[in-house]
């Protein structure tokens, strides 16, 4: 396994995703444990883009429970339909929040968070088994391009980890 990620082209976020994908594939290859793979994916995304917080919440009963993450400490449990994460789970769709202060019910784990993206993770049976949550300390930091790339990464995680 490589000791660190390598990026030669920082000209755009799209080019960083392009270089990240094969490195992430290699990192996940040969490991099937979901905690190990979610933890490495969180670390890789934070290293690649310098986001404030990158992590996962996993569905347990009628709540999302904090899983592997990188960044400041965060709330442990989020109810179905609550906050951005619980809303993404309920709607079964990726949520881009350009300004967290304008999202009714946003759960503020860090006062530095300004914008957020949450991607539902669909398990092999088609149900939502968790969400990927990324927070930025910059307003309006996430685009549809992030959404599609992060959805690809979530699918990669499901395939590699048998989620
Ligand atoms: N802001 C999220 C809660 C999780 S933290 O951002 C890590 C939400 O509103 O669901």
Q: In words, what does this structure look like?
A:
The chain is globular and about 40 Å long. The chain starts with 12 loop residues before the first helix and ends with a helix. The mean pLDDT is 95. The protein is built from four helices and six strands, in the order H-H-E-E-E-H-E-E-E-H. With 163 residues, the protein is α+β, with helices and mostly antiparallel strands. The protein has a single domain (13-161), classed as 2-Layer Sandwich (Beta-Lactamase). The longest helix is centred in the last third of the chain and has 18 residues, at 144-161. Strand 2 and strand 3 (77-79) form a beta hairpin. The chain has helices at 13-28, 34-49, 83-91, 144-161; strands at 53-60, 63-70, 77-79, 95-97, 115-122, 128-136. The chain has a six-stranded antiparallel β-sheet, with helices on both faces. The chain binds methionine sulfoxide (SME). The site of methionine sulfoxide has 14 residues, from helix 3 and strand 6.
Compile the SSE list and pairings.
Blueprint: H1 13-28, H2 34-49, E1 53-60, E2 63-70, E3 77-79, H3 83-91, E4 95-97, E5 115-122, E6 128-136, H4 144-161
Antiparallel strand pairs: 1-2, 1-6, 2-3, 4-5, 5-6
The chain binds methionine sulfoxide.
Methionine sulfoxide (SME) binds next to helix 3 and strand 6.
